[in-house]
Amino acid sequence: MDFDLPEGAAAVREGVLAVAGKYDQDYWGRCDADKRWPEEVWRELVDGGWHSLAIPAEYGGGGQGLLELAVALEALAEGGAGGAASFMYLLTPAFGGLTIARHGTAEQKRELLPAIASGEVETCFAITEPDAGSNAINISTQARRDGDSFVVDGQKIWISGVERADFLVLVTRTIPAAQARPRTAASPSCWWTSRRPWPRAR
Fold first, then answer.
1. Residue among 89, 157, 76 at smallest CA distance from 123
2. Is 30 exposed, middle or buried (0-12, 13-18, 19+ CB in 10 A)?
3. DSSP H/E element including 191
4. Structure confidence by residue, pLDDT tens digits, 130-181
5. Which of 36, 138, 146, 172 could cross-link with 132 by S-S, CB 3.0 to 4.6 Å?
6. Is residue 140 within 8 Å of residue 67, measured between CB atoms?
7. Which residues, including other chains, have CB under 8 Å from residue 136's CB and lie 6 or more apart?
8. 10 Å Cβ neighbour count for 74?
């Protein structure tokens, strides 16, 4: 089996390592101690297009896939970011860009993907619930269609990145877990984005 990276992924690794190499452990330690988003690194990733790898080229992204995102995340972690790399690459590049590119409506793609690719928009992912944790099968937040919209009832907690996000991807069910056959049916069922202010649970 060949474990060598494809040429495109290898180029991603080199590019992200070049960014990461500018920031030492002291930098990451200060960000952690100050509870501060590593804005300087994020801006370099945005300016270099490294954060929008999985967004199709027609929307201003790199036209790559999950492998390239994973390689970028690994390179950033190796370069000194450690676990912080996972948040930088999961919140907007994966949960936002990749999810919308693969599962969003045509309207969502037109509205959000160019803005994510340019760095104008950041996203987060709302899945965790008080009684289910991050077990998507057991979540109880419901989405009910009402004409062209959805009415959503439920509660989410511990939404990483929500304080920075312009949009969130909300994971809900359209069929309660107890009624779903199989239990995985309609879970997750509704990928829903919303601009601030965030809706309040009923």
1. 89
2. exposed
3. strand 190-192
4. 998 888 888 889 888 889 888 889 999 998 888 889 888 888 888 887 888 8
5. 138
6. no
7. 127, 171, 187, 188
8. 17
